[in-house]
Amino acid sequence: MWVYSTSANAKRGIRIFRYAPGRSGDNAKEFLKGFNGYLHTDGFTGYGKVADIHHCLCWAHVRRYFSDALPKDMKSPEATLPATGIAYCNQLFDWERKFKDLSPEERKIQRLEKEKPVLDAFWSWVESTNEKVLPKSKIGKALQYALNHKDKLETYLEDGNCVISNNIAENSIRPFTVGRKNWTFCGSPEGANASATVYSLVETAKTNGLNPYKYLEFLLARLPGSNVKTNPKVLDLMMPWDDLIQKTCKA
């Protein structure tokens, strides 16, 4: 299951789930054909097939690599390097929280002033530390992951509308992955497509501040009696940001 989402700074929150029989980057390439904005993803190489986009990678994934490298005994000397990596990432996220309510233009200015020095210090530390650790160790993999994606990890500095993680998509897909274990031995591609439609409606409702049950009830009470093919504008009145729906289905 693939999920596509508008960013945190979009005027309207949209979550679209799409079923595909595999994990090929061609799925993203097909869906995003004609899109040439900023694309925020994890480090999956398949996204490299999407052309004409500005690719932003996720700092939450960088931090996760360092967290995975932490030994169980936090007092051991081996904990120092992962903890340092986590501290650098946390500095970036701390600044982002402070810049949350700024305009995109001001956010970009503040990032260059406050976060760019943190990034410069981080890359200097990563490059020097990477020469001192075993490449196949967990800390070695964390450092190399960051180095391999350096340019895309700094893309977010180009535009204040960008974010530094793809946690929105991660959080949207989580309800689906929680239930996935129960569906291992049942269903079909048709069922998966139906599930994608339902999850798209529910998650989009949630991100627009609606009660998903009320929203689905609203749609099912009105859409069956509407001829959408002859009057497609009816769908505009069914969008979760419509004034009547906001009043009727608010969480």
Task: Characterise the protein shown here.
The protein is mainly alpha-helical and 251 residues long. The chain has helices spanning 26-31, 59-68, 80-98, 104-130, 138-148, 150-153, 167-180, 189-207, 212-222, 243-249, and strands at 2-5, 15-18, 38-41, 54-57. The strands form two sheets. Strands 1-2 form a two-stranded antiparallel sheet. It has a two-stranded parallel sheet with strand order 3-4. α2 (59-68) packs antiparallel against α3 (80-98), α4 (104-130) crosses α5 (138-148) and α8 (189-207) packs across α9 (212-222). The longest helix has 27 residues, at 104-130. The radius of gyration is 21 Å and the shape is globular.
Keyword list:
251 residues, two-stranded antiparallel sheet, two-stranded parallel sheet, globular
Outline of the structure:
This protein has 251 residues and is mainly α. It has three domains: 1-57 and 166-189, no CATH class; 59-160; 208-249, no CATH class.
- H/I helix tally: 10
Strand order in space, largest sheet:
1-2
Tally of domains: 3
* Strand content range: 5-15%
Based on secondary structure, the structural category is mainly alpha
Average pLDDT: 91
SSE blueprint:
Layout: E1 2-5, E2 15-18, H1 26-31, E3 38-41, E4 54-57, H2 59-68, H3 80-98, H4 104-130, H5 138-148, H6 150-153, H7 167-180, H8 189-207, H9 212-222, H10 243-249
